[in-house]
Amino acid sequence: MEKRTVFAFLLLIGFFLVWSQLAPKQVTQPVDKQEVIREDLTTTTKSSEVQTTKPIAKQLPKEAALLEEIQINNYYITFSPQGGYIQSISVNKPANILPFKNLGFQPATKNLNYQTNIGRDSISFTREGSPPKRYLFKEDIIEIKSVDSSPLLLFSFSLNSGASHLSQRYFESFYSKNGSIERTHPKKVKEDIQEKVEFAGARSQYRTISLLPDSYDIEWTKTDKQTNLYLNNPSSTISFYFGPQIINKMESYGLAGIVYYGFWHFLATTLIKILYFFYSFLHNWGLSIVFLSFSTYAVLFPFTSKSTKAMKKMQEVQPLMQELKEKHKDNPQKMQKETVALYKKHKVNPLGGCLPLLFQFPIIIAFYQVVFRFSRLEGASFLWIQDLSLPDRLFRLPFIIPIVGVEYFNLLPILVMILGIMQQHITASSSNPQQKKIGLFMGVFIGIIFYKFPSALVLYWFIQNLLTLIYQVRLKESRTT
Q1: How high does pLDDT run on average in the chain?
Q2: SS3 letters for 339-376?
Q3: What is the pLDDT of residues 72-110, one digit of tens each?
Q4: Which end of the chain is more exposed for a tag (fewer CB within 10 A), N or C?
Q5: Is 156 left (phi over 0), alpha (psi -120 to 50) or beta?
Q6: Dihedral (C-alpha) 361, 364, 365, 367: value to the nearest 10 degrees?
């Protein structure tokens, strides 16, 4: 492989490595549910006085004496009759606990005990002398009815959720004001009060909790363990989106702007539309990724063909280049001039080998963002892969490999490694042992980098490399016949 191409590949893979390490380190200290997160910094009014401008102390619930668990539709809910709030919530399966805690808790009622009534799609907390506080669960909307006007904790975002180091990279808190969405990682949220915001909430890797568009007065508080979103002066009914990050769904609630894929957002949304198109008749997300990879390869094939031929020409002139280096090793200017003349004579473009990477780079970066946000991949299976949002995990190893912490045998990265080595063997010049060593290193290095990546991304890369290898083999055979 031509040296500039090797360097470009190293930059691409290095980007993935650095990007994955930018996630904030996972907090290992256990959650202390008894912690009071904030003392009132103002003088509280006497019980007989009406508080006007100074908020009451905002506290998280203490450890509940009794927590109960129920299932409503696809929600698995743990709630507390003391205070009448949802302590934690899971979707689709009990083990899939989300980082959103303490939904609907009100500090003013934290010591009150409620009777609980479970409906087909609701939980009601009743107490003599006050209207029932009711949680209504719709498909992607949760409503809290009969809320009093005291501050309400919409949710606590747990920073000790047990999510992987890489998944935490995609945690986000946000609010929209004057049509502009402010975003930050929950760990970096600053304690702040905002009035008249359109909506506010947070995102985990695949799911979003957000107030529906309206006008709200909110307050962010935080500790080292969690970030909390309070509603000041809440209305009697609070409605919020609690669902997957699917643009079409969120668009119907006026929340599509929450989903953001970074600099290549337009390209990422285009890739998602193509995936949906293939899924409409394939009915399998793994096959849709395979067809997406075929499609991008076909579109970029003219550039791939030119690149391969350019690399071949570079290999053919390598002996002549070596002669020039030896002949003009004491005269760099002369060597550079002769090298340019050599390139012109043999019609060689030294940058030709990097051409496909110029177009492939934004596509793979955009697809990388999609894989870590596209909730349709969560739990989607393909061949031996049980979940496309995770490594393919063919089988569990009988031991954990120390230092790297590998406990599963992931087949796809191994196949990518093998394909990379085969490609280098075909394209490397037999007269250049250094080039062979670089090729071997690159093949192994790429496999290692991809080992813990989601299988959806590795599958896409594998198909791309397989198609490239097939073309290189056919090209080599045509030259020898």
Answers
A1: 78
A2: HHHHHHHCCCCCCHHHHHHHHHHHHHHHHHHHHCCCHH
A3: 888 889 998 888 899 888 887 777 778 899 999 988 888
A4: C
A5: beta
A6: 160
> In whole angstroms, what is the distance from residue 184 CA to residue 215 CA?
21
pLDDT-derived band at 255, boundaries 50, 70, 90: very high
Distance CA 361, CA 334 (A): 35
For residue 286, give Cα distances in angstroms to 223, 358, 371, 372. Answer: 41, 26, 12, 15
Integer Cα distance of 322 and 2 in angstroms: 14
Task: Give the model confidence (pLDDT) of 291-339 as tens digits.
Answer: 999 999 998 888 777 776 666 666 666 777 777 777 766 667 777 777 7
Fold exhibited by the domain 62-260: Beta-galactosidase; Chain A, domain 5 (2.70.98)
Please report, in angstroms and rounded to a whole number, the separation of the first and last CA atoms in the chain.
Answer: 23
**Cα–Cα nearest to 171, from 140, 211, 202:** 202
Q: Where are the chain's structural domains? A: 3-20+266-480, 62-260
Instruction: Print burial letters for 380-399: b (CB count within 10 Å at least 16), e (below 16).
Output: bebeebebbbbbbbeeeeee
Q: How far apart are CA 245 and CA 260, in angstroms?
A: 10
Contacts of 464 (CB under 8 A, 6+ apart): 293, 296, 297, 360
pLDDT at 383: 92
* Whole-prediction pTM: 0.76
Token reading at 246: 């699917």
- Cα–Cα distance for residue pair 248/84, rounded to 1 Å: 33
Q: Look at residues 457, 458, 453, 468 and name the one whose alpha carbon lies nearest to residue 422.
A: 468
